[in-house]
Amino acid sequence: MARTDVFTGLSEFLAVAAHASFRAAAAELGVTPAAVSQAIRSLEARAGMPLFQRTTRRVALTEAGVDFLARLKPASNEIGDAFDALSVLSQRPMGNLRLSVPRIALDLVIYPLLPAFRQAFPDVTLEIDVDDASVDLMAGGYDAGIRIGDFIERDMIAVRITPDFTWSVLGAPSYFTVRGRPQTPEDLMRHECIRYRFPTARTIYRWQFARDGREFSLDAPGGILVNDHISMIELARNGVGLCYSADKVAASELASGALEPVLRRYLPTKPGLFLYFPTRSQAQPKLRAFIDAATALMRAK
Question: pTM to 2 decimals?
Answer without folding.
Answer: 0.68
